[in-house]
Amino acid sequence: NAGASFFVVGRDAAGMKGSMEAVTHTDDDIYNANHARYVLQMSPVLEDKEMALVSFDKFYYDKTDHEMKAMDESRPDDFISISGSKMRALAAQHATPCPDPIPSDLLAANCIPPKFMVQTGWDIVCDYYSDPEGHYLPWSKAIVDPLMAENTMAIGQFGELSFELTFTESGRTVSPWHDISLRPSGYSVAAEEFNFVVEIPMFQTAKMEVNKELTYNPITQDKNKDGS
Prior knowledge:
This protein has helices at 35-41, 44-47, 84-92, 106-109, 119-129, and strands at 6-7, 52-53, 59-62, 67-70, 79-80, 96-97, 111-112, 152-155, 164-169, 172-174, 208-210, 219-221. By secondary structure, it is of the alpha+beta class. A hairpin with a 2-residue loop joins strand 9 and strand 10 (172-174). Helix 3 (84-92) packs across helix 5.
């Protein structure tokens, strides 16, 4: 466990859909939202008490006091489930603040409840999710220009979908996946020097990745809006 006391796991598996070639339930999630937690609870590491599991209940929006909390089973109608999928759909629709009383179906009313997010932050989220085919809009403005290593060449404007960072060696374009050697030229064995590729520069928030689909695998802006 490398000295760690707790393990944190996401719910990525919960959003995996069934195959369109499946006999039944082609559009249902393959995994229940709690499956990852169930698997972790059966881990031998927990039985050996080498690591501890921190479990979190699902939280809901309480319409009575505008707070996120565990549902009170005695008054279920006062609570709204606001999933990530629902939040993204509302942002794509440029949802506006809800009237009073707050409706239970936020998507139908196309509104966001009070205290869900500060308005300036919500405006940024709306701009991002309502423009799936347009320019990439950074989550925040960079305070410094991105640093680029020697033997790299930028094509286009950093922060836009068309940006590419290519790698060169002796005047020719090379692939960071296939052509960069493990050790730098003239390396020192004693110093244990290695080459490595940094996809996201320091101080930047744009999700940059080595592109496996393009020739020579340049670093480009990730275009997937689902976080994959």
